[in-house]
Design goal:
InterPro entries: AAA+_ATPase, ABC_transporter-like_ATP-bd, ABC_transporter-like_CS, P-loop_NTPase. This is ABC transporter ATP-binding protein. GO terms for molecular function: ATP binding. There is one protein chain. This protein is of the alpha/beta class. It has a single domain, classed as Rossmann fold (3-Layer(aba) Sandwich), CATH 3.40.50. The strands form 3 sheets. A 6-stranded mixed sheet has the order 7-8-9-4-10-11, with helices on both faces. Strands 1, 2, 3, 5 and 6 form a 5-stranded antiparallel sheet that branches. It has a two-stranded antiparallel sheet with strand order 12-13. α3 runs parallel beside α5. The longest helix is centred in the C-terminal third of the chain and has 18 residues. The radius of gyration is 19 Å and the shape is globular. Bound molecules: adenosine-5'-triphosphate (ATP). The site of adenosine-5'-triphosphate (ATP) has 12 residues, from β2 and α1. Adenosine-5'-triphosphate binds next to β2 and α1.
Length: 260
Amino acid sequence: MSLRIERLTCRIGRTEILPGVTGLHARPGELTALIGPNGAGKSTLLKAIAGIERAEGEATLDTHSLIALSLEARAERLYYLPQELGSQAVLSVFEAVLLARRTRVHEPSSAALVQVRDMLRTLELEPLAERELAKLSGGQRQRVAIAQAVIREPRLLLLDEPTSALDLHHQLQVLDWLERLAAERDMIVVIAIHDLSLAARFARHFWVLKEGRTVACGEPTEVLTQACLRDVYAIEARVEWPANEPPRITPLAATRRLGG
Ligand SMILES: Nc1ncnc2c1ncn2[C@@H]1O[C@H](COP(=O)(O)OP(=O)(O)OP(=O)(O)O)[C@@H](O)[C@H]1O
């Protein structure tokens, strides 16, 4: 059982944003990294899977065709965390995480409060529990948004650049936690991400997009090659897979210079 994408197309207005995303799959229990340059269509693909942008083609989660499902029915199975986070709601961190939680009939409310407290403790957000969302820093807001996503316990978690505002400590902490959580809950997690070294360290599987099309889908060592990075990102890069250290993808130079 997994997530499969075949012949997915998406147009917004008259523009074909995703002319052909095909041959992608993601397995439960591990992180899948969605990579590609600016404008490649990563956010649009995640929105199309979530049902926020209308798409045609196949997106199959386990045995269900997501494209045929209503937004509400998709929301039962997946959670999409957007790149841009709203922070206008006059809610505290605790209230925001509590409201994000899936309501369970016949469950005592004390269980919900305990679950929220545990989630805040796990993400080291307890000291911020009573602070308003609008008064958080960018990185704090992003960690609360991750708590809101995970507490829903979705089968499929789609995260659009979830670590973009985090400092190095929290990037490592959050991705390590998400990797373990995916395995523990047998959850499918797809993460759009720009930091290739971080992605190579935590994701077991990669989707590569360019100009709204699939370039590759596979294991990190198959996908993250010098040739692929030259083709997709127009960079020269050093790619190293040391035995006892995390992988290192070092960008060396852009193949085109601004200003000629
Ligand atoms: N609502 C829209 N209307 C028209 N074009 C759009 C719209 N949303 C996105 N696009 C275009 O679709 C293309 C893909 O955008 P998308 O945001 O999916 O890329 P991305 O890979 O997530 O990029 P980034 O790495 O910069 O976040 C871009 O060329 C963008 O300008």
